[in-house]
Design a protein that fits this description.
CATH architecture of the largest domain: 3-Layer(bba) Sandwich
Number of strands: 17
Structural class: alpha/beta
CATH topology of the largest domain: FAD/NAD(P)-binding domain
CATH superfamily of the largest domain: FAD/NAD(P)-binding domain
Shape: elongated
CATH class of the largest domain: Alpha Beta
Low-confidence stretches: 389-428
Oligomer: single chain
Length: 428
């Protein structure tokens, strides 16, 4: 029998992040996962924005992850065959197994033990917990962190249930895309939005992972829809049928390698307020990949659990349900969970709902995106004109020879004529 303070069941993103944070804090931790090196799995394939980067930084693993990621720098936004905008981007593409393995390497720098094996059973209580392995071994821990994703087998053993809120809420399709007749695509990264509600496609996003261009397509269809089989069999023709104007932006392309399809149910655990065990990530509640909030939820869960609660819980005897319950009502966790769920349903309805309100929402979103694009293009044009303006005879005379008859504290100020730096991006 091994003894530890924390036993983590599952070594995916949530479990590995938890191990890395607890290990850095010097808390004795054991991780149990079937794979010594995490294998390929079609899940998270990019860190999408500055907020996700900030949340990842809270876990202390951002540097390790970003060393293995590919930063695109600029993202093109397009719809109905028209380029709407080119925006500065904080997107970092990284395959899920590379993401998890980078975090595992970081965790191993600290007092974290990894057991390559399967968990056969759990036994929980208000003092110590028992994890039984499939080879008959046992781990005794003060706390079990269940990070087993959407698998419910172990949760059911201790009376934790699962409510499905939306069956097959969305489907993710992943593949590599290669330009035809040219060495590379013109864009560094691209987000192309749906053309009509009938295509049942919120968007497709193209982004680099190392030397290849990766495509993540999101659709709202049933899991047994023949369209999915057609997408696997003939992805180029099927994609061109769903988004016929996409080629105006990408040019001709073909698909390399396997086409991966992953349906996702929106679900949430029930009966989870128990002694001795706590749930993180998808083990607690799933998210919609099309809404792009899954990593936000994981980072928030792990940062709050490991940065605030577990170190405090271990200072006192016992591991009661009341003690663990504080994590589930943490304001930051509650806010992130609620935001993720709202966005999942709102994004789906904005994409495919035929009602007048949702049609207006689609038009408003298109108008807002086009408006932002026009503003940004104007500012870029202004930025290009700024040196000419500063070097013009009138501006030089105003800066070098101010009129004493009308003093102005701003004359001679070296600030740019337009808010073109970080403040402009922040306003976006």
């Amino acid at each position: 029998m091994r003894c530890t303070d924390v036993a983590i069941v599952g070594g995916g993103l949530a479990g590995s992040l938890t191990a890395a944070m607890l290990g850095r804090a010097g808390i004795p931790t054991i991780v149990i996962d079937p794979h010594e090196h995490y294998p390929f799995d079609f899940r998270v394939e990019k860190i999408g924005n500055a907020l996700q980067l900030a949340r990842l930084a809270e876990t202390g693993t951002a540097h390790a992850v970003l060393r293995s990621a590919t930063h695109d720098g600029e993202n093109w936004i397009a719809r109905r065959g028209h380029l709407i905008d080119k925006t500065p981007s904080q997107q970092h593409g990284i395959a899920y197994h590379d993401l998890v393995n980078a975090i595992r390497i970081e965790a191993k720098k600290h007092p974290v033990e990894t057991i390559c094996g399967k968990v056969a059973g759990l036994a929980t209580g208000s003092d110590r917990q028992a994890v039984t392995l499939s080879d008959g071994g046992t781990i005794s821990a003060r706390l079990i962190v269940l990070a087993s994703g959407m698998s419910t087998r172990l949760a059911h053993q201790v009376g934790i249930g699962r409510d499905v809120l939306s069956k097959c809420h969305s489907i993710s399709v992943g593949f590599d895309i290669i330009p035809v007749g040219r060495p590379a695509f013109e864009f560094p990264a691209l987000t192309y939005y749906s053309e009509t509600p009938n295509d049942r496609t919120p968007y497709i996003t193209l982004f680099p992972i190392k030397q290849r261009m990766r495509a993540n397509l999101f659709v709202y269809r049933e899991a047994n829809d023949p369209w999915l089989a057609q997408m696997r069999r003939d992805p180029v023709a099927t994609l061109n049928g769903a988004l016929p104007n996409l080629r105006k932006i990408t040019g001709e392309f073909h698909v390399a390698g396997d086409v991966r399809v992953r349906p996702v149910d929106l679900s949430v655990s029930t009966g989870y307020r128990q002694a001795g065990i706590v749930l993180v990530g998808d083990a607690f509640a799933t998210s919609c990949p099309a809404a792009g909030t899954g990593t936000d939820k994981v980072y928030t869960d792990v940062a709050r659990l490991c940065g605030v609660y577990i170190p405090t819980w271990l200072k006192t005897e016992g591991m009661s349900a009341d003690k663990i319950g504080a994590y589930y009502v943490d304001p930051a966790k509650l806010a992130c969970d609620a935001w993720s769920m709202r966005k999942a349903f709102h994004f789906r309805r904005t994409t495919i709902d035929p009602g007048l309100y949702w049609r207006a929402q689609r038009l408003a979103r298109l108008a807002a995106g086009s408006g932002k694009g026009i503003i940004r293009r104007t500012l870029r044009t202004m930025r290009g004109l700024e040196p000419q303006l500063l070097n013009s005879r009138w501006v030089r005379s105003e800066i070098a020879e101010p009129d004493p008859a009308r003093p102005d504290p701003n004359i001679g100020d070296a600030r740019p004529l337009f808010p073109l730096g970080p403040s402009a991006n922040a306003a976006k």
